[in-house]
Write a structure and sequence with these properties.
Helix content: 40-55%
Number of strands: 0
Radius of gyration: 21 Å
Strand content: under 5%
Distance between the termini: 80 Å
Number of helices: 9
């Protein structure tokens, strides 16, 4: 006897609609979103994404998190019925008075220029760096391991800085002196 497939419920249909709506608001086709999800480490074909958006395929938790990250929204955003025009708040403007670490991370990120111009993963890396900085700034009573958070933040910032264009190599060791400007 063949197993009867489980029907996609109300929450699954809502996720399907939200994924499609968020993707379309960004002006992306399914191929673009599938590529962004795959770049984040969760392989996804255009066909699979199409089935998800058509409510013909269930979305597991790992897919939900990867799709949300690729879209730049929280996973909860895909689970709720929200106004079509309402976007998630800017992840860099969450706190009205940022702590010192968060403030410096935002300055570093701002100095890199438009993140989208660096690499498709740059906005996600920046959001991770800001979140880590917020956790570092949080009171110690939250149980955070400051050493581990600081180490992870350094690694994320190093990766983000590595995406920035490199200055051309100056082989004459004269610096600005050899420049006609």
């Amino acid at each position: 006897m063949a197993a009867r497939p489980l029907e996609i419920g109300e929450a699954g249909a809502r996720v399907a609609a939200q994924v499609a709506a968020c993707r379309q608001r960004r002006g992306w086709d399914q191929q673009t979103l599938a590529a962004r999800v795959s770049e984040s480490g969760r392989p996804m074909s255009t066909s699979v994404l199409g089935k998800i958006e058509a409510s013909a395929r269930r979305v597991d938790v790992d897919d939900l998190v990867a799709i949300a990250a690729a879209l730049g929204v929280r996973p909860a955003r895909l689970l709720t019925d929200t106004d079509q025009d309402q976007e998630d708040p800017d992840p860099f403007a969450e706190a009205s008075a940022p702590g010192m670490v968060r403030r410096r991370v935002l300055e570093d990120i701002d100095a890199l220029g438009p993140l989208e111009d660096l690499d498709p993963t740059a906005p996600t890396l920046a959001a991770v760096a800001v979140r880590l900085a917020q956790e570092i700034d949080a009171p110690a009573s939250l149980g955070n391991s400051l050493h581990a958070l600081a180490k992870e933040l350094r690694a994320v910032l190093a990766e983000l800085r590595g995406l920035a264009p490199k200055e051309p190599h100056d082989d004459d060791d004269l610096g600005d002196l050899a420049s006609p400007d």
